[in-house]
Fold:
Amino acid sequence: MALHRTKLAIGAAMLALTLVWPATPGSASAAGVTTGESALVTDEETLAMQQALRAEVAQRETLTAQGSVCYAVHLQNIQGWLYPYCDGKIAGTVGQNRQLEAFAVYGSGGDVCYFAHVQSIGWQEQRCDNEMAGTMGGNLQVEGIKITARLYRICYEAHVQNIGWQGQRCGGELAGTVGQNRQIEAITIDMK
Structure:
């Protein structure tokens, strides 16, 4: 199947996005924003967030002599990234009906990889070590996540619209939902 691809620059920070849409109507591939062509986001705010997560993990490793995982979230109607959240702290909102639209994760030793199931897109390609999963500027909710780490066991939990906290998932299990149109509103991530 032929896909049309184009680069789009938005705003003063020149956020680089890739739009992908099918060449023929009715194709199984849904149109979307940042669908997996590239997880590289070049706006200054996102780069600052990524540097802050790396620095926070390094500082925690030095202070505790053990591994750490930090993460950031981008929420509906809240300007910019919220970070750093580390080692099981709640990132996002509970009881405010704000959808999680994007997230990034960075852990000790790297090799933390994750998938996001995004409204109208489905499962995005795997992201690793601080790459953005989800979308920014598309008003699309993250509905499901899966996270793995090579060097340690990683566990996470999602607060889902009209469900609440689902309970802990580990090592690539689905947190959130697929096919139910329910937004994730908050997450926690921890190493075991």
The chain has two domains: 3-33, 44-191. Residues 3-33 form one domain.
